[in-house]
Every structure is written in C-alpha cells, then in structure tokens.
## 1
Amino acid sequence: SSGVLFDGTSLKEWTLENTDASKVMLKDGAIRFEKGFGWLRSNREFKDFVLTLEVRFLNGDANSGIFIRSAATSDREPARDGVVRGWPDNAYAVQAREIGQDSPTATSPLAGRVMMTRGIAPPPKEIGFDVDGVRRVFKPMGEWQRYEIECVGPRVTVTLNGVVVAQAEISRLSGHIGLQGEVGVVEYRNISIREVISK
C-alpha cells in the first residue's frame, strides 16, 4: 500500500516527541523546524518501504535527519555537553543537513549518510557512500532537496536528487518514521511512503 504522510495541511499522521508547536509548525505547505531538539514520529510503524520527501535548509548550520525504523521511545540521557536532545533511543537516521560549510576533508557526515542514534541499535554496516556524488547533486541552500529512502530487509538505499549516494545494512527491520529537530531552520514537504511487500 502507499500513502501520504504529510499533505501540506496537517500533522494528523504524526506525534510530537519532546518538542512543541513553537518549534515545529506548518508554513506554506511545509513542516518547519525552527531550532530546538526533539522529533516528529509517524503514528504508524513500517517494515519494508520506499519513503520520498523534500527538505530544504534555510541557514548555513541547518542540520536534521530522517529517522527510519525507529522505536517509539526517546533517549532521556544528557549528551556529553549536558543537553538532553530527546531523539529516539533505538533508531537509524539518514543525515539531512546543509553541506555548504563542509570542507572537502570534513569528517562530519554529509547529507544522505546512514547513521544511528546514540544507544541501543548496532551501528549500520556501510556498503557505500558517494561523497563526490553528494557534493555534485546537492542544491544550493534554500532549494528543495529530494530524498528517496528504500528499506527492504536489512538493506537501506538512499537516493538524493536522483542519484544513489548511500547504501547500508541495518539490524532493525520495522519501526516508525521520524523527522529530527536539531540545529537551524529546516523544512520538509511532499512526504509519502509506499510499502513494499517482500516475496
């Protein structure tokens, strides 16, 4: 089956986790995160699927992520800097961040990389990550970037603006979709999911 997770008019498919409407709002048909942590969790869980969405970053340090196969529960532990970020405690994430400030030697993960949230799940096994491809297809700040995230069995494939940029294997085989509140102003729109029935 397939469905729209966000139609531009309401958050009825989502639950706010560790955040509030002053930081996550609807604006011009998009979900807008304005600084502050926490996350939006899909009400439903999904197993195998293709998730498509558009995201744009509205300032240079804008940083977010798309949680996949997430537990519904959140991490209440402070990080090393003492701040409780309130993200899922057992999930994987596809990095969504403005890369304009990344240097060619940046050790920070670039957009599209499959990562884990702190805690329970084993780290993803990275099969491939095309740094040059990310830099080539990433659009200038303020323009919409299109992500397609396919999860079938343990395999995750991330397509950014039409180019496959990441493949990894993860150990969680079902869970929620999530959108991360982190740093800067980030908007998401046109979020849809198509469930894949394995043979």
Note: Residues 32 and 187 are 4 Å apart (CA to CA).
## 2
Amino acid sequence: MMLKVKELTTVDTSLLQSCAALEAISICEPWSFGSFVSEARRKEGLVLVAIDEAENLFGLLTATCIPETTDLTNVAVFPEHRRKGIARMLVSELKNRVRDTSIFLEVRESNTPAIQFYKKHGFLQVGIRKRYYHYPEEDALLMKWEEIKNADTGD
C-alpha cells in the first residue's frame, strides 16, 4: 500500500467529509465538516491527509502556520491503520514545510501513546495548560519542537 500526503483545499469536499468522520471516532471534542472547510480556507490553515491512489483517507493533520510558530492542532489515524507510520509521515511533512519555525501542540495528560509518539519525534514538554480539555476535564501538556541547528555552521 503506497500512501501520499496531500494538502486539502475547499474543493476537496469528499476528503474533508472523511476528515470529520475520522475525527468523530478519534477525538473527544471532534471538529465538524465545517471546521475542516474553514481550516482549509484560512490562509494560515493547513489540512494534510494521508491517502492512497484511490484517495481513501488513512490519517489527517491540521495546523495553523504563522511566521515563526506553528500550532499542530490535530493528528488522527483510523484505528485499523495506527502504528504503521502514517502519523509519522504527516508530522514529518509538517516539519519539512515549517523548517524555520517552532511547532507547538497540546496533548491530553492521559494520552500516553500520543505523548510517547511526540517525544520520539523530537517534541519536548514545555508546560502544562490547566483544565484545557472539557470532555472530560483534563490538563494538557504543552509540547514544542524546533529544528536543531548546528551552532558552528548555522545549519
């Protein structure tokens, strides 16, 4: 199975609907179809998906990209396709697109698999946001990634 990453725009209605369906089974406070359309429409918004040749959705990532900082707002993969490198592929694509910025994200304090995933991919915990989540109420860990540059060469 060969997957590719695609950036969605508002014309990708079917894939945006699939994103909302994936969110509904993956996240306690899921985005609606309209939220995905809105994110794809915004200049700072980014909706990346992992799809196969037939444009079947396997995973998604959303982010807000502004100069000097990026907020990774969602990563989700269909349960039957987890632990196959799909989230890694999406996060790597985001890192490649925003090389000169820091990437921030919030993750539920109880979401150990996600925390381990982010740490494995270079994110460090930099804070806690008290009562950030509501259903159920829970603190969020604030995590950050930034490209490490060689101090001697500036690379």
Note: The chain is about 30% helix and 35% strand.
## 3
Amino acid sequence: MLYHFCTNGLRKGLVFSSDKDYIYGMNSIALCKIKFQDVKVMAFCLMNNHVHFILDCEEKDGIMFLKHYKSLVGAYLKRTYGNERNLAGADIG
C-alpha cells in the first residue's frame, strides 16, 4: 500500500539550510531503509523546513520509518546547531 508521510513544517526555523544538512538528511534515508527493509521508498522530497515521503509499506512500518528518520536528523541538528535548531513540532502529518 502506498502512503504519503510528511512532517509538519517548522514555523520557527529550518531543518536543512546547507549542503551538509541535506547530505545528512539523504544519508539518513538510507540508514532508515537498512533498518526497515520491508519499507520501499518510492519518492521523497527534503524541503528546508519539512520532509515528504511516498512509501510502499504497512502503515505502522511507515510511521516507524519516519520516527526513526526524525530521530536521526534531530540528533544531527542538536550536535550541529545545539538547541537553536531541532525537530520539536515537526510531527508526522
């Protein structure tokens, strides 16, 4: 079954603002794919303040995929930018 998963846009700031940020975001998709082998990533779009995924999977697996993605990117943002940039409020939509 195909599902569209996305995070809500962050009103306060950006998730991705540099090439390094986008590269980390792209690599995190690969890491999630390794962990969730039954999830097929059909398409994705990394926007500066949110992300979109089209996933072929069971709904629960897609939710777990996106939660793991948010966890990876959130940890990167905290390491890189401290508390000035995070995924708080970027809930799954």
Note: The radius of gyration is 12 Å.
## 4
Amino acid sequence: IHTVHVPIFESTSFRRQLGERLTEAVVKEIEQRTPFKVVGPQDADTVLVGRITNDVKRVLTVTPTDEPRDLEVRLRVEATW
C-alpha cells in the first residue's frame, strides 16, 4: 500500500464544516507522519472513511470581560481503513 484516499468525513453536527476541517487535519497528519500519499479515489490503493458521531465544545475559563480564554473540544469519530 502506497496511496490512500480520504473522503470528507460525515458529520451530523450543527457546527459548520466540522467534517471538512477534520478531514483536512487527518490528511495533513497522514502525509507528515506516514509514508503514504493521499490521492483521489481512482488512484488509491486503500480508502480511509470517517464519521463524526458526537462533538462537545465547552468553555473552561473566561477573561474578566466574559470572553472565552480556554476551550475544550471533544470529538467521537468512527473510522474504517
């Protein structure tokens, strides 16, 4: 296996473009940390499919003017390679 295709992760979240942003981050990590090359579906040896099943975002600390300073984001993802 030398090439992989990563279609945009499915997401039922109300957060806009969450699936697209996670897919972009996964593709960058694959290309930086593995010997695999990310390619289109017609040229791929294998496919990595993902789906965001749950997401939670909460404020941990705020500034004196009540603006968020630290946030926590948790994602639950199902992936099949």
Note: The beta strands are 3-5, 10-11, 37-38, 46-47, 49-62, 68-80.
